[in-house]
Design a protein that fits this description.
Organism: Candidatus Chryseopegocella kryptomonas
Family: Belongs to the peptidase U62 family.
Radius of gyration: 24 Å
Strand content: 35-45%
Structural class: alpha+beta
Number of domains: 3
Protein name: TldD protein
Largest sheet: 7 strands, mixed
Pfam family, one: PmbA_TldD_3rd
Number of helices: 10
Keywords: Hydrolase, Metalloprotease, Protease
């Protein structure tokens, strides 16, 4: 890709912008430039409903003064306009101190931790559409009770550079895509939905090496199987949650509470508990930005900090939080490489990357066999969580009843209801089958959405409330 805008400022101009940003007494200034190319395709009702292609270059200037952040951005690269953006951001500070000089390093190119030889944007649009239509056709032809299929495709390729008043000057790029397939089955007044996914930080060879027919059938098959499901029992039961996407429970119910800003402000259930036992000794929770090809992996975060593996909870003991530069500074700690932003229109926040429960020693089949009567959650759906209390509600997208150690029949209408920290204390089994779900995760916070990965091995929770339709 020809990133024609990447030389919009030379080093001398960058220094002037940073110095302008610090003119009111700010402690730290940063320029973030981005050139992003995105494609979105939606197929619904057997036709292409939307097809969007966009190029969005832009630049943002951030100034930090104490705990305050000033941020302004522009997509007009006239140098005078950029200086004006820096001046606007500078007003977060109110000191009359003299302008600080800035000495920049030579710009460094940060190589990706996952090589992508053929970025997805290089594949012709007609080939992408043909592939997606095959997904649609296979899902619809699987069973006559499939009445609707929706396919959403999104790809994004980004080049960016970051320069700051501490002398950092780095550039990098990344690319990812995601396909989300929803099949709706209707029979005798009952309506059920099945989903399937494909994606990650891969090149187009990964798309072409996967069968579109299998992706469509996976979605349709799940929807049809749920038509035969029985109403879920309600009450307090042991629950086995399958490896992989089941980690979304940890992401939502625990992960957000471990982000630095909530803990600096003292509003998280985990605030002030470093070194204390906060969950079962079987549980180790990690946030890792270096897992190859996962949506939450990058070479550097959106502040230029190298990605790393961060142990948050080790054998039940809280070890640390996920930190960006601002919150790390205010807490007298070091950034963990968790400063992330949706685009140049946003300043970075401490966000998750790939958050998961680490592998244990149990055989997943033994965990199921140990349950006399309970629930097997093969796939979780959407959910809600309160960061302050840790209370959550999660839909079980695909679940089964466990009776006398065996999976018997499929259930529908089940929800997991509980409190994140309390549920983590009730983990009594952790499988040896760790799986990171790299394909589809997206996390929202303060109006910003960023790609993430989730994961876990199969886990057994001794008791959790199931909201069902059968008492």
């Amino acid at each position: 890709m020809n990133f024609a805008y990447h030389q919009i400022l030379d080093i001398a101009q960058i220094k002037k912008v940073l110095e302008k940003a610090l003119a009111k007494g700010g402690e730290f200034a940063e320029i973030y430039f981005e050139y992003r190319v995105e494609t979105t395709i939606n197929i619904s009702e057997n036709k292409i409903k939307t097809l969007n292609y966009g190029i969005s270059p832009g630049l943002g200037v951030r100034v930090i003064s104490g705990a305050r952040t000033g941020y302004a951005y522009t997509d007009d690269f006239d140098f005078a306009k950029i200086l004006n953006v820096a001046e606007v951001a500078s007003y977060i500070a109110d000191s009359n101190s003299k302008i600080k000089s800035v000495n920049l390093e030579e710009k460094r190119k940060i190589k990706q931790i996952y090589p992508i030889e053929k970025p997805i944007y290089l594949l012709e649009i007609d080939k992408k559409i043909e592939w997606l239509k095959r997904v649609n056709d296979s899902a619809r032809s699987y069973d006559g009770r499939i009445k609707q299929v929706d396919i959403n495709y999104h790809e994004s390729t980004r080049y960016f550079w970051i320069a700051n008043s501490e002398g950092l000057y780095v550039e990098s790029d990344d690319s990812l895509f995601r396909i989300f397939v929803v099949s709706v089955a209707i029979d005798d007044g009952l309506r059920e939905m099945g989903v399937s996914y494909l994606g990650g930080r891969y090149g187009y060879e990964h798309l072409l090496s996967n069968s579109p027919e299998e992706l469509g059938i996976e979605s349709a098959k799940q929807a049809i199987s749920k038509l035969q499901a029985k109403p879920s029992p309600a009450g307090n039961f042991p629950v086995v949650i399958k490896s992989g996407w089941g980690g979304v429970l940890v992401h939502e119910a625990v992960g957000h509470g471990l982000e630095g800003d909530f803990n600096r402000k003292g509003i998280s259930v985990y605030s002030g508990k470093i070194g204390q036992k906060v969950c079962s000794e079987l549980v180790t929770i990690i946030d890792d930005g270096t897992i190859p090809n996962s949506r939450g992996s990058l070479s550097i975060d959106d502040e230029g900090t190298p990605m790393q593996r961060t142990v948050l909870i080790e054998n039940g003991i809280l070890r640390g939080y996920m930190l960006d530069k601002l919150n790390a500074k205010l807490m007298n700690l070091e950034s963990t490489g968790n400063g992330r932003r949706e685009s140049y229109r946003h300043y970075p926040l401490p966000r998750m990357r790939n958050t998961f429960i680490d592998a244990g020693k149990d055989n997943p089949e033994d965990l199921i066999k140990s349950v006399k009567f309970g629930i097997y959650a093969k796939s979780l759906g959407g959910g809600q969580v309160d960061i302050v209390s840790g209370n959550f509600v999660f839909e079980i997208n695909e679940g089964y009843l466990i009776e006398n150690g065996e999976i018997t029949y499929q259930i529908r209408g089940a929800n997991l209801i509980g409190n994140g920290p309390e549920v983590m204390k009730k983990v009594v089994g952790v499988g040896n089958d760790l799986e990171i779900e790299k394909r589809t995760g997206t996390c929202g916070k303060d109006g910003q959405h960023v790609p993430v990965g989730v994961g876990q091995p199969t886990i057994l929770i001794s008791e959790i409330t199931i909201g069902g339709t059968q008492v």
